[in-house]
Amino acid sequence: MKRRRILAAATALVAASGLVACSSDGDGGGTDASNCTNKITKTDLPVVTMWAWYPNMQLVVDNFNKQNTEVQVCWTNVGQGGDEYDKFQTAISAGTGAPDVIMIEMDRIPNFQIQNAIVDIKKYGFDAVKANYSEGSWKDVSVGDAVYGVPVDGGPMGMIYRKDIFDKYGITPPKTWPEYEQAAQKVKDAGGPQFGDLGANVPAVMMALQIQKGASPFAYDPAQPKSIGVKMNDQGSKDVLDYWGGLAKKGLVGTQDQFTPEYISGVINGKYATYISAAWAPGYLTGAGVGQGQDTGKFAVAPLPQWDTANPVQVNWGGSSFAVTKQAKKPELAAKAAYGLYADKESLTDGWTNQVIFPLNLTALNSPEFVDLKVKFFGGQQANKEVYVPASNAYKGMTYSPFGQYYFDAMTKQISEVIKGSVTGSQAADRLQEDVAKYAKEQGFTVQ
Amino acid sequence: MTLLTSKRAPRAQAKTHKIRGKVHLREHLMGWLFVGPFGIVFLAFLIAPLAYALYLSLFKKQLIGGTSFVFLDNYTKAFTDPSFLSGAWFVLRFSLVAIPLQIVIALAMALILDAVTSLFARFSRLMIFLPYAIPTVIGAVMWGFLYSRSFGPLSDVFGLFGAEAPDFLSSNLIFYGLLNITTWQWAGYYMIILYAALQGIEPTLYEAARMDGAGKWQIAVRIKIPLIAPALILILVFSLIGTLQFFNEPQILRYLAAGTIGTDFTPNMYAYQQAFALANFNYGSAISFALGGVVFICVYAFLFITRKRRSFL
């Protein structure tokens, strides 16, 4: 009887550990060239596989394949952002299953570079395309002198707002963050909607806003890969977390997770007067059904509010690149695809006219059609000329960390605590510092 | 055959012994052949991955410094890791509330459906069971929408009374939001198990009870419930294991409320995060085994407490 009991309990143990069984089956997918989403017509050419999630990727790949006579791209969309990274991460651990070319947000490049999962593409034709992108763009895809990605789109930030709400409450776009709060208070006192939103699930925004006030969360020099600087509780970081925590506490901004149906329906119903976001947001919002029907042209955009108008700082949210993976059998062919994709005029024009991307390719970024574009989502406002292009030009690039995923998860946790009211913004910054520094040490870094 | 051999002469006995040995061997082989297919699958898909995960959990992988053997360090770390401990504490608390609730509801419904035999009862049985037939992922997505304050029915219902709808995805109420989803999903399934057990009771017992003057209530409490105790314990063990391994529902709702449901919300989610997002398969495996240990202890303790009533294990 006793043995049976142990056996039964052992069965329970086995059942409980069922999850670990999953960890050994590598989630491949996407590397099989017969599995493309696009159709390859030039079947005699070598094929490179690719993962990417741009909404117009089908067109981009078709354009590339049509124009290229050396290599064809087999593309699949395995998910956006984190979903794709999880799959890539699994493929890296398994040593097989990764595509040849992969779309990676620029802030994740060091993350994969340190694992030796992506390759330096400088020797595969960098000089030919160097002049097509700005220095700042190249900095964001480089670790030290090595280049790990081809910049495609950026995310210069601005303040999207609803003209109808601003008009109704007699507000002009705030130029500084204190003005932003005053305007929020004014709208609230008049019984208006919330002025913005503090979403716990968009830590990248908080990071950008902290950088705007002088924060520099990471210092990393690939020449000394074992040491990393972690600084998340400097005065600037604390001030920004306190500022947003204060807005949330006073009920001036919402605390809804963004990119959720709940948030989008709030945006459509005019629940938020502003949306602090990046240049790709209009495309995303349009796709989600915002600004259509009777709401057409109700949105406008203004430059991001500043802390110090004498020394404005422009920041960035998102932006992606194409990288070549270590698992690519023919890296030079893969690099050809990485350099060539989304670099032709047709694809770029489709990208920016539909506001799917804010192009970093200078042939598009500097073209008059792009700069002078009257953006339909903003009711004909020349948003690129007025806001996004100057913001992009003033953006200086930044240092990302090799454990961006952990940092963002930890940041989400702290923002959530601030929203709950269990800690102040300053305390959250201290906790974040402690948490991330501990993780860095666990990972074998010397933390400075 | 044994009778025959025992009466034979010693020499012949030795001979039959040989034959018996051969027969034995053949029987052995046949037995192994029958067990073989199961054995291979069992070893390849259960024991081997488990052994591999156990092996992985004894190592440590760092971004700087690579992989090194650390023996049980990962387990020491897990049981001092606030993320793991808070997750384990959450699922334990959740089990203590969710399991009794689900079982009481399932038992009440099973007793009612057993006592009433109308067309409506049969229809209700199907309807109560239905949520179990809906995949957990879809169930979680569906509830995620129902909980929405801008387009879910909650705001309408509360609006009738001029109140503001509660946000079941906020950190204060997520416990109840999840409690509702799991109860909705599982109570019907447990009800079917209990109902089947009730159907297996000899009806003459009820007759005898009635002869002795027992009412409906007494029959239910004194006869039906004690007789289905083994089934009750079975579903208790099922639900205990299932709840401690909580994963699907919170993982899905994370897409709607990442701030409320952190990556370390439950131990299983934490293991998933470590393994698949942070590429730390070693620590992820250790967390899984540590959780397995917690489940083992809980189930063992439960079985020990209820040892007199069991008949199925």
Task: Please explain how this structure is put together.
- The complex is a heterodimer of chains A (448) and B (313).
- Chain A is an alpha/beta fold and 448 residues long.
- Chain A has two domains: 24-154 and 317-379, D-Maltodextrin-Binding Protein, domain 2 (3-Layer(aba) Sandwich); 156-316 and 397-447, Periplasmic binding protein-like II (D-Maltodextrin-Binding Protein, domain 2), CATH 3.40.190.10.
- Chain A is 43% helix and 14% strand.
- Chain A has 20 helices and 14 strands.
- Chain A has helices spanning 2-16, 18-22, 57-67, 82-94, 109-113, 126-129, 135-140, 163-168, 177-189, 203-212, 235-249, 261-268, 281-287, 331-340, 345-353, 362-365, 368-371, 383-394, 404-420, 425-442; strands at 47-51, 72-76, 101-105, 142-143, 146-147, 150-162, 196-197, 218-220, 227-230, 253-254, 274-278, 299-303, 316-324, 446-447.
- In chain A, the strands form four sheets. In chain A, strands 1, 2, 3, 6, 11, 12 and 13 form a seven-stranded mixed beta sheet that branches. In chain A, strands 8-9-14 form a three-stranded mixed beta sheet. A two-stranded antiparallel sheet of chain A has the order 4-5.
- The radius of gyration of chain A is 23 Å and the shape is globular.
- Chain B is an all-alpha fold and 313 residues long.
- Chain B folds into two domains: 2-56; 74-309, MetI-like fold.
- Helix content of chain B is 74%, strand content 3%.
- Chain B has helices at 2-6, 10-56, 73-78, 82-115, 119-133, 136-146, 153-160, 174-199, 203-211, 216-227, 229-244, 248-253, 267-277, 281-305, and strands spanning 59-62, 66-69.
- Chain B has a two-stranded antiparallel ribbon with strand order 1-2.
- Chain B is flat and about 70 Å long.
- Chain B starts with a helix and ends in an 8-residue tail after the last helix.
- The model of chain B is unreliable at 1-8 (pLDDT under 50).
- Chains A and B meet through helix 1, helix 2, helix 4, helix 12 and helix 19 of A and helix 2, helix 11, helix 13 and helix 14 of B.
